[in-house]
Amino acid sequence: MPRQSLAIIAVLAVALSGCFGRDSRGGSAAAADSGFAGVQRRGAAVMGVNQYTSRHVFQPLPDGGRIELQRGVDDSAGIAQIRRHMALIARQFAGGDFHLPGVVHDREVPGTRVMAERRGVITYAVESLPRGGAVRVQSTDSAAVRAIHDFLAFQRQDHHASARRDS
């Protein structure tokens, strides 16, 4: 193939690639959801692992819920970091400190005010998972359980996450 034809093909390929991954307003798909990109960026800084190669689950349960984070790739350092992070948030949440979710989401996270006020009736248990960790959140107090569910629902939405492990 002549050199000029290769150059034309290369220019066309670059031009066409710019058409893919764009939303209807002409911006890139990532830029279209800059809020999500910000959550991912701040989440990586706070949690210490790449959010795009990790999987969150925020599962509501009748007595509270479960927060899960696992690496989607083989990464022993990342797995250890997730387990440290889960232990940290369990300690902080038990003490009524919900600063870290506020940093990740750049705002007060729904449910955290009530969870802080009712911290004496909520328990947090850390679990190790094959590629990360989880925090089981439990209470017999109906107001606390509602707040936990509000917290988990917001997290699911903002992280574009699941409510179930098997999804």
Could you characterize what this model shows?
About 50% of the residues lie in helices and about 20% in strands. With about 170 residues, the protein is α+β, with helices and mostly antiparallel strands. The protein has one domain. A 4-stranded antiparallel sheet has the order 1-2-4-3, with helices on one face. Helix 3 (about 35-45) runs antiparallel to helix 5 (about 100-105). Residues about 5-30 have low confidence and may be disordered.
Overall structural domain count: 1
- Can you tell me the overall shape? globular
Q: Give the biggest beta sheet.
A: 4 strands, antiparallel
Taken as a percent bin, the fraction of beta residues is 15-25%
Would you tell me the structural class of the helices and strands?
alpha+beta
Helical amount: 40-55%
Biggest sheet: strands side by side, in what order?
Answer: 1-2-4-3
N to C succession of SSEs:
HHHEEHHHEEH
The number of E-state strands comes to 4
Mean pLDDT: 79
How far apart lie the N and C ends? 48 Å
Radius of gyration: 20 Å
Count of discrete alpha- or pi-helical segments spanning 4 or more residues: 7
Oligomer: single chain
